[in-house]
Specification:
CATH topology: TIM Barrel
CATH superfamily: Metal-dependent hydrolases
Distance between the termini: 44 Å
Structural class: alpha/beta
Number of strands: 6
CATH class: Alpha Beta
Strand order of the largest sheet: 1-2-3
CATH architecture: Alpha-Beta Barrel
Strand content: 5-15%
Radius of gyration: 18 Å
Number of domains: 1
Largest sheet: 3 strands, parallel
């Protein structure tokens, strides 16, 4: 992993690791991986390694929701159904544990295991996990921009930044679920019909 991270760094790239197990998370963080997607079994040792290396967690809670919806429908084998049931309770506490350990969290959904267009459901799941509405918004805007190295171009509304804006029928600081119903989209200053 260290060789992968170092090669990526030399090429101006960052490395993300899909990691569920605590020791895998810890090893990836110690190797210098930039983000951990999922982080299902994050524990204190994994979190300590993440903080030491500046690794950010992207909990992808919508992915767990998408997978959970198919349990018991015959979509998965009985063995996989059982595995999902066993992991579900732990997955529901990812954000809570990461926050307790002081790990930086960014927004991401691992879209593909649930219908596209439902991505904004991640906000409510992050809040349910213990983040404030403001923290969940920051995870999707300025923190996400930092993760991809574009914090000087996107992630906030400011002069010189890309005019990527949505409008919703409410205040997401009061109710983050209003982000699930977008009324207006502007991309790079152009209104999308």
């Amino acid at each position: 992993m260290k060789a992968i991270v170092e090669t990526a760094r030399l090429l101006g790239l960052k490395v993300a690791a899909h990691a569920h197990g605590a020791r895998g998370i810890e090893a990836a963080a110690k190797a210098g991986v930039h983000t951990i997607e999922h982080g299902t079994y994050i524990d204190e040792a994994a979190a300590t390694a993440m903080k030491a290396s500046g690794t950010t967690l992207v909990p992808t809670l919508m992915a767990f929701e998408g997978i959970r919806k198919n349990v018991g429908t015959g979509y998965y084998t009985p063995v996989v159904d059982d595995k999902i049931r066993a992991v579900s309770e732990v997955a529901d506490t990812i954000v809570q544990r990461a926050r307790r350990y002081g790990v930086k969290i960014a927004f991401g959904t691992d879209a593909g295991v649930f219908p596209h267009g439902e991505n904004a459901g991640e906000f409510a799941l992050m809040v349910k996990g213990g983040m404030s509405n403001r923290e969940a918004l920051a995870a999707a805007t300025n923190i996400a921009a930092q993760i991809i190295g574009m914090e000087n171009e996107i992630g906030k509304i400011a002069v010189g930044y890309s005019a990527d804006i949505i409008a919703v029928g409410g205040n997401p600081l009061d109710d983050v679920t209003v982000l699930e119903n977008v009324d207006f989209v502007m991309v790079r200053g152009r209104v999308i019909e």
